[in-house]
């Protein structure tokens, strides 16, 4: 049995025996830790992994709590709704549905914001929901709702702290398991790409707006479930625990524990809950006076911890009990992913006609035309400022021409986003390397296969995607081996040399199974042998029918590799032809290769 499973087994064993050895006071404290950790877990996914800061999660806790409180205590409900209030388990379903709907509406508005406007937006709706709970007479106003019935499970009434304890921690452990499973999947890689990799992810076919909405709703549902449990544990609710100040505490828990780690939610919730309780008990005795001294000390301690442990406490704790990293196994027996049929050699794949791009009075591209055919490598070269990158953006759909058109497989590129173009069969690398540095080489490359599979969130969370995941990893491993990075498959991508990172990008692009490969300065930073290996790879791809467009400055690399060359200067095409012809062209020599002798 692996060390990580032994640790998990030990943790579960401790959870099972604690109610038998601890006093009711500490059991109650553990119940609160479990509830807080469930909300913090949503923030781990939302903030730590997805990069979306939310201060409003306490409002979603309130939605879960007030839904069950209102439905289970109402003296009279409409006939169509009366059956829901008959059992707390039915009100849980109702609360989750209501919360998902509210989160969808709020997310559609809030997630369009960026920068500091996003957290400000979460504060705004968090305050709004808090005051809604306090002003609606049907929800008891600021007095709240009493008489909430306990939860019953298989005839067992959970009306004591030691009894509901097991249910709270069962909910939390299931949430942790499904979150861990989700992150270790196709959908999880898309979610992990949200923080610092959105442009790359979109180019690989990931719908990042959908991924953001998914984690926003999941985090809200975690909070709702915690609110449902809280209401039936307390048997009473009022608006106080659902204000923005509590939302800030939840965010502190996630960050303190380790915002990028599932187990960080428990660590953060445990440390803050216990520390606050101890400070409330000890400080009045030490200072001889009552007051909010604990908040002052707590704030100072928080600043010190965050200063010393930027990634939270969980990474530090992990070092105390070293657990060997689990390498993803490649299943050689997995069925290969489906492949597209490449166009016949010589068939035009990409055609740019009279492309002009103006930025105000600046003409970056002027009446540019070029054509890339199946089974050939075309180089686009020119001095700095010639307009190559702008032209590259017109071709890849990142930008739209002022006039003219770009056709890919006979269809116009303009008006289509990066995902649609990737689905059509165009894949690319970037001038400035874009990868996820803390993820392994294997996982980075696997992102390229996102469009070649379709298992969703529920399948990923409950491990129903394993056959498809095996196919994706097998494809990624093959592409890594193909480009010569097999020895680095399980290394963190950020630990590779720049040249190797560029090769990784090519492997990721190939994992998308394109018919046109766009490479933006692929030889930059490569050593001689690496360039030779890259050249051999591109020649092999050409022999298989792949079309490749290269923007490159390394003339020795280009002239010994490509079939044709297009030369730009000041946004215009000044020459096109075979490498030998271009090297002898007077206009090219004058503009780019050192002038005429």
Task: Outline the fold blueprint.
Layout: H1 3-21, H2 24-49, H3 57-73, H4 79-82, H5 88-110, H6 117-135, E1 145-146, E2 151-153, E3 156-158, H7 161-183, H8 186-192, H9 198-203, H10 208-234, E4 236-237, H11 244-258, H12 264-287, H13 293-308, H14 314-320, E5 348-359, E6 362-373, E7 377-381, H15 388-396, E8 403-408, E9 411-412, H16 418-424, E10 426-428, H17 441-446, H18 457-461, H19 466-482, H20 498-511, E11 516-520, H21 528-543, E12 547-551, H22 555-559, E13 564-569, E14 572-577, H23 579-584, H24 586-591
Parallel strand pairs: 7-12, 7-13, 10-11, 11-12
Antiparallel strand pairs: 1-4, 2-3, 5-6, 5-8, 8-9, 13-14
Helix pairs in contact: 2-7, 2-10, 2-11, 2-12, 3-5, 3-6, 3-10, 5-10, 7-10, 11-12, 12-13, 19-20
Give a brief rundown of this model.
The chain is of the alpha/beta class and 597 residues long. The protein folds into three domains: 298 residues, ABC transporter involved in vitamin B12 uptake, BtuC (Orthogonal Bundle); 89 residues, 3-Layer(aba) Sandwich (Rossmann fold); 160 residues, P-loop containing nucleotide triphosphate hydrolases (Rossmann fold, 3-Layer(aba) Sandwich), CATH 3.40.50.
């Amino acid at each position: 049995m692996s060390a990580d499973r032994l640790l998990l087994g030990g943790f579960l064993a401790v959870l099972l025996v604690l109610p038998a050895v601890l006093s009711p006071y500490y059991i109650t404290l553990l119940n609160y830790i479990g509830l807080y950790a469930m909300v913090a877990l949503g923030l781990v996914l939302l903030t730590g992994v997805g990069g979306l800061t939310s201060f409003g999660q306490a409002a979603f806790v309130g939605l879960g709590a007030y839904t069950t409180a209102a439905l289970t205590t109402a003296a009279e409900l409409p006939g169509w709704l009366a059956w829901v209030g008959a059992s707390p388990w039915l009100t849980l379903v109702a609360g989750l549905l209501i919360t998902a709907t509210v989160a969808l509406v709020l997310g559609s508005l809030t997630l369009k914001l960026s920068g500091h406007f996003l957290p400000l937006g979460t504060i705004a709706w968090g305050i709004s929901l808090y005051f809604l709970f306090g002003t609606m007479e049907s929800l008891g106003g600021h007095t709240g709702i009493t008489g909430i019935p306990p939860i019953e499970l298989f005839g067992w009434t959970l009306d004591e702290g030691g009894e509901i304890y097991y249910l709270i921690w069962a909910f939390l452990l299931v949430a942790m398991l499904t979150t861990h499973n989700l992150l270790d999947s196709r959908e999880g890689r898309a979610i992990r790409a949200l923080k610092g990799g959105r442009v790359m992810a979109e180019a690989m076919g990931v719908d990042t707006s959908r991924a953001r909405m998914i984690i926003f709703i999941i985090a809200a549902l975690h909070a709702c479930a915690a609110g449902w449990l809280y209401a039936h544990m307390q048997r009473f609710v009022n608006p106080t625990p659902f204000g923005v100040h509590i939302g800030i505490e939840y965010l502190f828990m996630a960050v303190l524990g380790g915002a990028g780690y599932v187990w960080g939610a428990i660590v953060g919730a445990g440390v803050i809950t216990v520390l606050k309780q101890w400070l409330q008990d000890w400080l009045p005795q030490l200072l001889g006076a009552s007051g909010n001294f604990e908040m002052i000390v707590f704030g100072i301690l928080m600043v010190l911890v965050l200063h010393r442990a930027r990634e939270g406490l969980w990474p530090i704790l992990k070092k105390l009990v070293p657990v060997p990293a689990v390498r993803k196994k490649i299943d050689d027996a997995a069925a290969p992913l489906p492949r597209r049929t490449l166009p016949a050699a010589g068939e035009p794949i990409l055609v740019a006609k009279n492309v002009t791009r103006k930025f105000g009075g600046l003409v970056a591209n002027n009446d540019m035309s070029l054509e890339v055919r199946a089974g050939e490598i075309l180089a686009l070269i020119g001095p700095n400022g010639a307009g190559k990158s702008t032209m590259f953006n017109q071709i890849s759909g990142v930008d739209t021409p002022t006039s003219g058109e770009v056709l890919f497989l006979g269809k116009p590129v303009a008006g289509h986003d990066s995902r649609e173009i990737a689905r059509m069969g165009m894949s690319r690398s970037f001038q400035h390397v874009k990868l996820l540095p803390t993820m392994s080489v294997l996982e980075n490359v696997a992102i390229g296969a996102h469009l070649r599979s379709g298992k969703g969130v529920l399948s990923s969370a409950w491990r129903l995607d394993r056959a498809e995941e095996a196919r994706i990893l097998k494809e990624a491993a093959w592409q890594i081996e193909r480009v010569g990075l097999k020895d680095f498959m399980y290394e963190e991508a950020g630990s590779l040399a720049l040249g190797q990172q560029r090769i990784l990008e090519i492997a990721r692009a190939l994992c998308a199974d394109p018919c046109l490969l766009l490479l933006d300065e692929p030889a930059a930073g490569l050593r001689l042998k690496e360039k030779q290996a890259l050249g051999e790879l591109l020649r092999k791809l050409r022999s298989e029918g792949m079309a490749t467009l290269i923007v490159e400055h390394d003339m020795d690399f280009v002239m010994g590799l490509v079939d044709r060359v297009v030369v730009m200067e000041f946004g215009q095409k000044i020459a096109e032809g075979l490498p030998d012809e271009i090297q002898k062209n007077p206009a090219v020599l004058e503009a780019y290769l050192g002038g005429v002798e």
